[in-house]
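Appendix C: a fully annotated inverse folding record. The material below is reproduced so that readers can follow the format used throughout the book. The structure is listed first as tokens, followed by the designed sequence.
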């Protein structure tokens, strides 16, 4: 045993043990002053001028996030070791007073750090001032152009194109003044016959014709624009063209019945006063589906209130406009004859017209 106590091994073990005991004593009994760095403390901006809320001014550059709680700072604190080692981020608040930031330009403000932990203080010089640039916001109207690429589906043409050709861009004065033009591009090859609108990305160019990033503008600046249009194709069809009585009134001012019929020596006029006409229509695929052979269409309104005798009306009448997204390639124009009818003849004609309409509907359905 004496030999072991006098050995180097024992002396080493004794030295280490004494060192550990001494460290524990110094660290936890004497408790000297201790410094510690605390990272990523959220910064809260206070007394922010209303110009930032209204969007008239923004913070630009490297520190542009100081108005959001995404911005953080690192601080160094000191105090007794046992207290400093127990501090939490929730014991610390960091604020930046923006009261004096009321105009564009370069600014530098020092955050105020409040430590809500007794016995802990901020190390002098551990928090630096934050420098940032304030920019005025400008809004400007810009003409939006539509460009096209590719080929339309075979047999179709583009019609009724509409979109908002004036857009407002908002951003810093430098960025807005640098914008030269803007356009959207419609690729015809991407269209199908049933398409009627597309949402297109807006491409902004600087004054040298180079593409600008959308990040150059505020969030209120549009990034896309909806374009509406119709794809028209053509269809040949045989329709029945009838005269149309204005206000659906079929009697003149004397109460006499007036019968109108299309005057065409080359075609047979049916009991409704209409004739078959072969026409070419153009419109959307869906809209044209309704217009089959024997479909009834009408002329422009004819006023019979002052027609008192049988006569060929002096003016020719065009076919009235068709339903939405359908039109004549060449609008038919016809002469109309007016015939005064007795009450008996008018009643008999009405019965014949009803029968003719019923037959016509059956033919159309077939």
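Designed amino acids, in order:
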């Amino acid at each position: 045993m004496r030999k072991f106590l006098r050995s180097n091994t024992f002396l080493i073990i004794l030295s280490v043990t004494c060192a550990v005991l001494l460290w524990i004593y110094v660290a936890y009994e004497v408790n000297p002053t201790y410094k510690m760095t605390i990272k990523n403390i959220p910064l809260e901006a206070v007394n922010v001028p209303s110009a930032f809320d209204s969007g008239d001014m923004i913070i630009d550059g490297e520190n542009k996030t100081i108005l959001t709680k995404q911005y953080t700072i690192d601080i160094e604190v000191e105090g007794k070791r046992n207290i400093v080692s127990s501090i939490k981020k929730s014991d610390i608040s960091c604020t930046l007073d923006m009261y004096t930031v009321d105009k564009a330009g370069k600014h530098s403000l020092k955050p105020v750090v409040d430590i809500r932990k007794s016995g802990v203080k901020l190390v002098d010089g551990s928090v630096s001032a934050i420098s940032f640039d304030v920019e005025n916001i400008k809004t400007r109207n810009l003409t939006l152009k539509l460009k096209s690429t590719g080929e339309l589906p075979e047999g179709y043409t583009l019609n009724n194109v509409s979109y908002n050709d004036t857009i407002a861009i908002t951003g810093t004065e430098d960025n807005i003044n640098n914008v030269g033009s803007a356009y959207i591009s419609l690729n015809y090859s991407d269209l199908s016959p049933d398409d009627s609108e597309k949402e297109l990305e807006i491409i902004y160019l600087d004054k040298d014709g180079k593409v600008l990033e959308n990040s150059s503008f505020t969030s209120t600046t549009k990034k896309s624009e909806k374009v509406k249009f119709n794809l028209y194709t053509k269809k040949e069809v045989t329709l029945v063209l009838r005269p149309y009585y204005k206000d659906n009134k079929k009697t003149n001012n004397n109460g006499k019945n007036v019968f109108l019929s299309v005057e065409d020596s080359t075609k047979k006029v049916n009991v409704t006063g209409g004739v078959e006409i072969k026409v070419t229509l153009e419109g959307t695929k869906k809209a044209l589906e309704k217009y089959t052979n024997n479909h009834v269409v009408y002329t422009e309104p004819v006023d019979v209130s002052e027609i008192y005798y049988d006569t060929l009306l002096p003016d020719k009448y065009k076919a009235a406009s068709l339903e939405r997204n359908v039109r004549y390639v060449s609008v038919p124009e016809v002469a109309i004859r007016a015939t005064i009818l007795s009450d008996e003849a008018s009643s008999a004609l009405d019965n014949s017209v009803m029968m003719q309409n019923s037959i016509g509907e059956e033919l159309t359905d077939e």
